[in-house]
Write a structure and sequence with these properties.
Blueprint lengths: L2 H14 L8 E4 L3 E5 L2 E6 L10 H16 L5 E6 L13 H5 L12 H11 L4 E5 L2 E3 H9 L2 E4 L4 E3 L8 H5 L1 H10 L3 E2 H7 L4 E2 L5 H18 L3 H13 L3 H18 L8
Parallel strand pairs: 3-4, 4-5, 5-7, 6-8, 7-10
Antiparallel strand pairs: 1-2, 2-3, 8-9
């Protein structure tokens, strides 16, 4: 997303906002919704595809998250999806998306989903994934890359066979093998039991619980400027000391997966 396009979207959202008293601006692009403020929301807006991520959306998300990371007024970033799902993963109906793993050397920097995972771990703001419906593939990876994940109790989670960068750190090696080879859906409760998500929300209370956590984090951020960023970096150094190498190996696995056609069904 170019700077001029970003500015036009932000300006339009500011003019149309009905929440001026809260000093929050709303920006809407075709497939992303950005609620801009101390608690910034980035929402994938492709409900007809269960928020499958194509290359264009991935690149725009990289741009937005990069800007969030550079903005000292943003305390928290929330990731979500419109409609029935958080994200069903890669949009395999998009030619550019599916050719991406084969179009360049083994370099995760040019593949937007891997860039996003890196950015979500490295921006100083804590990131919350608001999970509902299907959370699959690259959507599952984005959830793992977030600092917190709160899920609706009816969520259905499914990783891809190459989800190796984060998964073993969360669940341990043996559970990682089991989850990869099972290639089935994981319930929200099992995901919480395994440590894949922070908690399961009470029925009908997902947005409320995500907002409560975001407000708590923002309050800490305002009271102790820079503390959450330092804490996040410290945790990352302990938890993910070789993130670039881990993501590079995951990308190699992704290319092999695509070469041999190891995909879940196209329609969620």
């Amino acid at each position: 997303m170019s700077s001029s396009r970003w500015d036009r979207i932000r300006d339009a959202g500011a003019r149309e906002s009905t929440r001026g008293a809260r000093e929050r601006r709303f920006a809407v692009s075709k497939e992303l919704i950005i609620e801009d403020g101390p608690i910034t929301r980035l929402t994938i807006n492709r409900p007809e595809r269960h928020n499958a991520i194509n290359t264009e959306v991935g690149e725009e998300m990289v741009d937005v998250v990069t800007r969030v990371g550079r903005d000292p007024t943003v305390q928290v970033l929330i990731l979500g999806g419109t409609g029935k799902s958080f994200s069903s993963g890669d949009d395999r109906t998009d030619e550019r998306t599916m050719s991406a793993p084969h179009s360049a050397p083994f370099n995760q920097g040019r593949y937007p989903y891997h860039q996003l995972q890196t950015l979500l771990r490295r921006i100083p703001q804590p990131v919350i994934a608001e999970v509902h419906g299907y959370c699959m593939g690259s959507g599952f990876d984005l959830m793992l890359a977030s600092d917190f994940a709160i899920a609706d109790p009816d969520s259905k989670l499914r990783l891809v066979i190459t989800a190796t960068a984060f998964l073993p750190k969360y669940v341990g090696l043996k559970h990682a093998w089991r989850l990869i080879l099972d290639d089935g859906f994981t319930s929200a409760q099992e995901a919480a039991d395994l440590g894949l998500i922070t908690k399961v929300a009470a029925p009908g209370a997902l947005a409320e619980e995500v907002n409560a956590l975001a407000e708590r984090l923002a309050e800490i951020g305002r009271a102790q400027h820079g503390f959450l960023g330092v804490l996040k970096e410290s945790l990352n150094r302990s938890f993910l000391p070789a993130l670039d190498d881990d993501l590079r190996m995951q990308l190699i696995g992704s290319r092999m997966r695509d070469l041999y056609g190891l995909h879940p069904p196209a329609d969620a």
